[in-house]
Specification:
single chain, 396 residues, alpha+beta, five-stranded mixed sheet, 48% helix, 11% strand, globular, binds protoporphyrin IX containing FE
Length: 396
């Protein structure tokens, strides 16, 4: 059995491969692509907490990234302590629970605005029409991007993610879109320094951590660090929520009895979000690089090796979850790994939960009976993001 995160067949249903790995190769090595992988829940959890041994500084996917490239706009997700902790502390100051909770009315109004035309049409494409635009609008509002700029930034973001089939290199048009986006964020940051608004970027400009500087003085984020944060939120905060909601739409069409449970009792919706995240994790693994030799299941992993923490496999581990392949919105999930664990635990988890709950509340109100023709759904093909780029649905 082979684990190939780039295989389209694997993307269709990775779970039989994960089960085989947990049973037969809990520490797996892929010689062709030169990476190791941990498949069992306990192992993934232990490694997630041990950032000293499992470093993020060389990227978190199978593909290794050029560390120098990120120096100009560093992102906390690709940093180890102490640099990670400094950024995270500063951002935590501005990215408060209050700020997130304050977005609920806007999220609901946006969800309603996106869903209402679909009621009139008797369906639509759940990803294109709902789960893609919703988190995008939320991130723009959170950051404080002007209404009149949103379309242009959105187009740049989309273009920067475009890839040509069967080509591992990033196409020219995507590179130049990325460059214009970074340029846009730098311009916005310098403008907000002169004229602050209510958004998160302005709050980040003010955030400071006491006594963190070399001279014991408070430190602040540099423009490059704020731009790195905007770019990180643009990808981490959009892609994943889009995928979680798209997966939910497909799963509830497939498991009608579970859909009936959330229709009858909307109190089950928050639990159902956790179950969707466990059952089909939008982020399938977190890649790390070992900082020393380690041993797992009697085999040595050398220092400097790429090792994938297969969180999606861990979330289906029968050693941890009873009947793990059953989709059950009433399940009590103790420590799920869908948002990662340890120092890199998802910064946006509360926002993702809020967006998903509100979207499902408004969707269930409008579409108590719907169906999805899974043959017409289109999957994305990325190395660690699992989900759809298109989910057509209609009233049943
Ligand atoms: C369903 C939605 C989401 C999922 C499944 C998800 C998943 C994850 C995972 C697995 C990690 C850990 C990465 C690692 O350990 O290498 C992470 C980190 C992160 N996420 Fe999320 N995420 C979601 C939504 C969001 C949102 C909405 C935001 C922002 C608004 C966000 C911002 C971040 C950031 C900034 C980090 C890095 C934290 C750090 O390095 O300390 N995420 N996310």
């Amino acid at each position: 059995m082979e684990l190939n995160p780039f295989s389209h067949e694997f993307h269709e249903d990775p779970y039989p491969t994960y089960r085989w790995l947990r049973d037969h190769a809990p520490l797996y090595y892929n010689e062709a692509l030169d990476f190791y992988a941990l498949a069992r829940y306990r192992d993934v959890l232990d490694a997630s907490y041990d950032w000293q041994t499992y470093s993020s500084a060389e990227g978190t996917t199978v593909e290794r990234m050029d560390a120098q490239l990120f120096e100009m706009t560093p992102m906390m997700i690709f940093l180890d302590p102490p640099r990670h902790d400094r950024l995270r502390k500063l951002v935590n100051r501005a990215f408060t629970l209050r700020r997130v909770a304050g977005l609920e009315a806007f999220i609901r109004a946006t969800a309603i605005e996106l869903l209402e035309p679909l009621v009139a049409r008797g369906g639509g494409d759940f990803v294109h029409d709902v789960s893609m635009p919703l988190p995008m609008q939320v991130i723009f509002t959170l950051l404080g991007v002007r209404d009149e700029d949103r379309r242009q930034v959105r187009e740049c973001m989309d273009l920067s993610l475009e890839r040509d089939a069967d080509t591992p290199t990033i196409p020219e048009r995507a590179m130049s879109a990325m460059a214009s986006m970074v340029g846009y964020w730098f311009d916005l940051v310098s403008e907000l320094r002169r004229k602050p608004n209510e958004g998160l970027i302005s709050a980040l400009l003010d955030a400071e951590v006491e006594g963190e500087g070399d001279d014991g003085k408070p430190t602040r984020l540099s423009d490059g660090e704020i731009v790195g944060f905007c770019a990180l939120l643009g990808s981490a905060g959009n892609e994943t929520v889009t995928k979680l909601l798209g997966n939910a739409c497909v799963l509830f069409a497939r498991h009608r009895a579970e859909y009936a449970r959330i229709l009858e009792n909307p109190g089950h919706i928050p639990g159902s979000v956790e179950e969707v995240l466990r059952y089909t994790s939008p982020s399938q693994y977190q890649g790390r690089t070992t900082t020393r030799d380690v041993e797992w299941h009697g085999r040595r992993v050398p220092r400097g090796a790429r090792i994938l923490l297969l969180t999606a496999s861990a979330n289906r581990d029968e050693r941890e979850f009873p009947d793990p392949d059953r989709f059950d919105v009433g399940r009590d999930v103790p420590i799920a790994l869908g948002f990662g664990q340890g120092i890199h635990f998802c910064l946006g988890a509360s926002l993702a939960r809020l967006e998903s709950r509100v979207a499902l509340e408004e969707f269930t109100r409008r579409f108590p009976r719907y169906e999805v023709d899974e043959r017409s759904c289109v999957r994305v093909h990325m190395s660690n993001v699992h989900g759809y780029e298109s989910v057509p649905f209609r009233v049943a």
